[in-house]
Amino acid sequence: MTNHVMNPIVERILYNIEKVMIGKRNVAELGLVALLAEGHVLLEDVPGVGKTMMVRALAKSVGANFKRIQFTPDLLPSDVTGVSIYNPKEMEFQFIPGPLMANIILADEINRTSPKTQSALLEAMEEASITIDGITHRLEKPFFVMATQNPTEYEGTYPLPEAQLDRFLLKMRMGYPDQDEEIEVLNRVQQKPPIEDINPVISLQELRKLQSQIKYVHVDETMKRYIVEIANQTRNHEKIFMGVSPRGSIALMKAAQAYAYMYDRDYVLPDDIQFLVPSVFSHRIILKSEAKYTGISAEELLQEIIENVAVPVQRVM
What is the number of H-type helices and E-type strands within the chain? Predict the structure, then answer.
């Protein structure tokens, strides 16, 4: 990376998260990329690796209203969005907001609930609003969803359709800590949960300002062509059945702007794009059956594509 100096505000947020998350700096950075780019995250991993703690730490760091929704097979869309109930005293319907009316949402085990309830969440993510009985309720900004899902080979799961996966800015995995990191986790929770010691380092108003500034990070024409060329390679690869849509190209550009801003730059570099491609594109492509049988992963294929696409020369700003 040409510029290793991180934006001081971003550094404070990450430092806060690292009080809870041990050895997961990259995961915390990617989560913050999505939040700053006004996108959402899909986190696929086994239970118990700290997904909830990370989202709670992020929410507390920015002073956000946080809600956790545990998705179960019997969860209804109204349990998520809210419901209108008739009040006989007032002689009118009153909206009782659901847990979606918060700033930061942890949608836990989203693939354990029915497609209908999944759609209610994903519609809110796409439109930043929910509609109950014909009345539209706008969601307060920032609105950020981190949805977790168990690996699809787990029993009792409903895999998310490709069109819904496309709504997530990026997908990531946390993975198990190594032995030393796990011992440090035990040390930190022995007396009391470290999440209790986390205080806001910025306000919601400051976060909104950061989000608005991201849009002005310069993306040179050569960088846009680089993004589109990588996306185009996924559409013509012999091992890929379905490549990345234009929505994926847009997502990569926005994520790169946020990542550049985090590293205190007002322009995007090829390094930013290369780092983000696996996280932004891996859930947007479908491998051919024969490719799956060989055991190759989407991330590995994308890395191969990156290596085969010529890196543009960045013009001096």
Answer: 13, 11
Angle, helix 298-308 to helix 221-235, in steps of 10 degrees:
130
CATH superfamily of 215-308: Magnesium chelatase subunit I, C-Terminal domain (1.10.8.80)
Could you give the CA distance from residue 216 to residue 277 in angstroms, rounded to a whole number?
Answer: 21
Write the CB contacts of 11 (distance below 8 Å, at least 6 apart in sequence).
none
CA atoms 221, 233, 39, 193: torsion sign: negative
Structure token pair of residue 10: 């971003």
- State how far the Cα of 33 lies from the Cα of 175, in Å rounded to an integer: 19
Which tens digit of pLDDT belongs to each residue from 17-75? 988 888 888 899 999 999 999 999 998 877 776 788 888 899 999 999 999 999 888 99
Which amino acid, one-letter code, is at 3?
Answer: N
Whether the CB-CB separation of 277 and 230 falls below 8 Å is answered with yes
N- to C-terminal Cα separation, the chain? 16
User: Residues 147-165: pLDDT tens digits?
Assistant: 988 765 555 566 777 777 8
Domain boundaries, the chain: 8-71+102-128+138-211, 215-308
The CATH class for the domain spanning 8-71+102-128+138-211 reads alpha beta
pTM value is 0.89
Q: How far is CA 91 from the centre of its chain?
A: 42
CB atoms < 10 A from the CB of 123, how many?
17
Pick the closest to residue 28 from 65, 67, 68, 56 (CA basis).
56
67 forms beta bridges with: 105
- CA dist 74 and 265 (Å) reads 47
Measured between alpha carbons, how far is 41 from 32 in angstroms, rounded to an integer?
10
How far is the C-alpha of 31 from the C-alpha of 15, rounded, in Å? 14
Task: Identify whether the C-beta of residue 137 lies closer than 8 Å to the C-beta of residue 94.
Answer: no
Please report the sign of the dihedral spanned by the C-alpha atoms of residue 213, residue 215, residue 218, residue 219.
positive
